[in-house]
């Protein structure tokens, strides 16, 4: 079998862990939030957190009548802490080469936070940004990636998703999209994708009318 080659008319990127490294800020914010709420490390370990909306995570940890306030608080903490948020290797180089009409960011974060992290990392602002504010069901539901494809005017089957989390890859597959996984936050064996790479620096994207993606 030869090397994997994916063909796409548009690329849909996850944000945290794919384009930007926000892990230190995320840990600080959620640690502070948990301390305020009396949430233990054991409680966090019992649920999946990466790639999900803050609201869905909060809903697994606090009573239903506290979800709104608790979610508002973690959003406040995350927006206040952008220290150390940086672009991951290869992200800036790749995005600046792409036609702005042919790529989007699809994130589980809220719009204000996504925009702030892109700016902090020095990455271009996409024409299309799908956030937790724009969908009713977040990843692993396919709605976010389907919304991204629709906003670009590209059929889902002509899109390739670049992700770092199992929840996002599940969403992409359910949307009928091919997938590239980068391994910064999960081990390769945890990531079910058409192409699994250490990072964006190892992803080759060529073509103008149509993208061809291979391992560099």
UniProtKB/TrEMBL annotation:
Coiled coil: none annotated. It comes from the Bacteria. InterPro entries: HAD-like_sf (IPR036412), HAD-like_SPP (IPR051806), HAD-SF_hydro_IA (IPR006439), HAD_sf (IPR023214), PGP-like_dom2 (IPR023198). GO terms for molecular function: sugar-phosphatase activity. PANTHER family: FRUCTOSE-1-PHOSPHATE PHOSPHATASE (PTHR43481), GLYCEROL-1-PHOSPHATE PHOSPHOHYDROLASE 1-RELATED (PTHR43481:SF4). This is Phosphatase.
């Amino acid at each position: 079998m030869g090397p994997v080659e994916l063909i796409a008319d548009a690329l849909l990127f996850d944000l945290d862990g794919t384009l930007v490294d926000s892990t230190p800020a995320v840990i600080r914010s959620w640690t502070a939030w948990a301390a305020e709420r009396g949430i233990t490390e054991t409680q966090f370990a019992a649920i999946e957190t990466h790639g999900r909306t803050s609201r869905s995570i909060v809903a697994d940890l606090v009573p239903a009548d506290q979800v709104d306030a608790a979610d508002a608080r973690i959003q406040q903490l995350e927006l206040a802490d952008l220290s150390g948020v940086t672009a991951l290797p290869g992200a800036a180089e790749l995005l600046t080469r792409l036609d702005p009409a042919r790529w989007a960011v699809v994130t589980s974060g809220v719009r204000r936070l996504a925009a702030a992290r892109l700016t902090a990392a020095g990455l271009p602002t996409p024409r299309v940004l799908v956030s937790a504010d724009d969908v009713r069901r977040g990843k692993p539901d396919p709605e976010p990636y389907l919304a991204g494809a629709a906003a670009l005017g590209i059929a889902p089957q002509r899109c390739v998703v670049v992700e770092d989390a199992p929840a996002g890859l599940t969403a992409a597959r359910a949307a009928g999209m091919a997938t590239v996984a980068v391994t910064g936050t999960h081990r390769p064996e945890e990531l079910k994708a058409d192409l699994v790479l250490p990072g964006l620096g190892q992803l080759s994207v060529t073509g103008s009318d149509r993208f061809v993606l291979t391992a560099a």
